[in-house]
């Protein structure tokens, strides 16, 4: 049972989340449009990197799709810096999500089919988190479950860094392949970076399919 301060904090978080998504819907601002507008602001500011990390931190609270922000990192900063900043931001917010869940959701019970996954996550933390990342399971779900079960933070962080890297690299290269205005109807595209991104994503999906079959066999 959650204590009153935690319940109050969760209530305000839920209210903030609903307000954010309601405002976006009322203004016809979908996630892609919001990211396109954010890139225009970040790219034009000398302190754009700090704004990028601030937006990333808010993403964790507002449950904003992380892939769009990774693509934006490649578009704004290019393939090298985009990968560097995207890696730090993604790993940092994953740890933040873990810590928040560990504080607010400790003692969370798992029922039904999720019970087997809970046992794997507790007894084979590194392997389970790694496979979850490679299988492209929802990142916030993995962060929350790992934190709620208070698995080893070092294992969680290392598995997240390794397992999330292929998808991160593919998304950054995809974003870096766009040139000009991201919100434009027909932005210019660097075909080499786009092809590299597609090949990496294909390899990641094939690996994900293999691991999924292997997991089902177990």
Oligomer: single chain
- Tally of helical segments: 9
Give the beta-strand count. 2
Radius of gyration from the CA trace? 18 Å
Tally of distinct domains: 1
Distance between the termini: 34 Å
One letter per element, helices H and strands E, the order comes to HHHHHHHHEEH
Mean pLDDT: 79
Short description:
The chain is mainly α. It has one domain.
Describe this structure in words.
This protein has 9 helices and 2 strands, in the order ααααααααββα. With 218 residues, it is mainly α. The protein has one domain. A two-stranded antiparallel ribbon has the order 1-2. A hairpin with an 8-residue loop joins strand 1 and strand 2. Helix 4 packs antiparallel against helix 8. The two termini are 34 Å apart.
List keywords for this structure.
218 residues; globular; two-stranded antiparallel sheet; mainly alpha; 9 helices
Tell me the layout of helices and strands:
Elements: H1 4-26, H2 31-43, H3 48-62, H4 66-104, H5 114-123, H6 125-134, H7 139-148, H8 153-176, E1 178-179, E2 188-189, H9 191-217
Antiparallel strand pairs: 1-2
Helix pairs in contact: 2-4, 3-4, 4-7, 4-8, 5-6, 6-8, 8-9
């Amino acid at each position: 049972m959650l204590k009153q301060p935690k319940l109050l904090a969760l209530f305000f978080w839920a209210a903030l989340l609903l307000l954010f998504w309601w405002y976006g819907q009322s203004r016809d601002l979908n996630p892609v449009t919001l990211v396109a507008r954010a890139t225009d602001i970040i790219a034009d500011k000398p302190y754009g990197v700090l704004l990028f990390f601030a937006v990333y931190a808010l993403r964790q609270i507002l449950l904003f799709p992380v892939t769009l922000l990774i693509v934006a990192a490649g578009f704004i900063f290019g393939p090298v810096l985009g990968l560097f900043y995207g890696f730090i931001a993604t790993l940092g917010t994953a740890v933040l999500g873990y810590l928040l869940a560990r504080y607010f959701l400790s003692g969370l019970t798992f029922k039904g089919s999720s019970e087997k996954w809970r046992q794997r996550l507790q007894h084979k933390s590194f392997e389970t988190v790694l496979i979850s990342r490679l299988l492209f399971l929802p990142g916030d779900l993995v962060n929350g479950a790992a934190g709620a079960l208070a698995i080893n933070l070092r294992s969680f962080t290392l598995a997240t860094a390794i397992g999330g890297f292929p998808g991160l690299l593919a998304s950054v290269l995809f974003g870096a392949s766009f040139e000009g205005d991201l919100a434009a109807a027909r932005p210019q595209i660097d075909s080499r970076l786009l092809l590299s991104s597609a090949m990496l994503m294909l390899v990641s999906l094939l690996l994900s399919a293999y691991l999924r079959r292997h997991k089902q066999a177990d």
